[in-house]
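Encode chain A's predicted structure.
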Amino acid sequence: MEQKKITDLSQEKVIEIKELDKSFGELKVLSSADLNLIKGENLVVLGKSGTGKSVLIKIIIGLLKPDKGMVNVLGNTVDQITYKELLALRLRVGFSFQSSALYDSMTVKQNLEFPLVRNQRSLTKAETAKRVDEMLDAVGLLKTLHQMPSELSGGQRKRIGIARTLILQPEIMLYDEPSAGLDPITCMEINKLINDVQERFHTSAIIITHDLTCAKEVGNRFAMLTDGRFEKQGTFEEVFNSGNKQAQPFYDYNFIQ
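Encoded structure for chain A:
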């Protein structure tokens, strides 16, 4: 499949990362890492397990502090703002967990209502109900309104997790391994949903994955994380047709088995 294209990107940086270092004891995870997310694009971050992809996401949303370097998100230097400012920033950045992170004791409706009740208390019950219906319709699961998470398939839970993230209308979406544990048909459905979210809600997104099939279908641009830094960035072809010794085994693992 050809790389997904997008037109009329503004080149405005909604995330800017410079010279980022992060270690845990003697283990250096990120080393002088540079990365930008441009407004309106889907940026795919690729790398083997344990290369620091999830650490990067946690630093972006302020769950971890960098040892060195600068992380700016929507005009905020993340490790220099107050906790109150960080909470406000997190409402503008949606995080889609690999596990979907739904509350098992709540219905789908209650799962989607929860962030609204907690963060947008000025909404009336009617406005909340309308927003829930709109988000479930956007992910094609309006009929699951009164179901429990245990009654849903893995792909449905992923979709509901994305709907719950979208309900606060974030400007940036962070997807952590969106196709992990899913069959090929369901993976295609999640890929389509990620593209639909970009087009319908005008989000900018970072998609963390080691699945190149997923990457090719959702990515406008690609960044390969190896040895703690992004040595290769660009189109799919620029990253994987470059003869790079780090990228080629990753490509072979996904497509030549």
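Strands lie at 13-24, 27-38, 42-46, 68-73, 76-77, 93-96, 172-176, 204-209, 221-226, 229-234.
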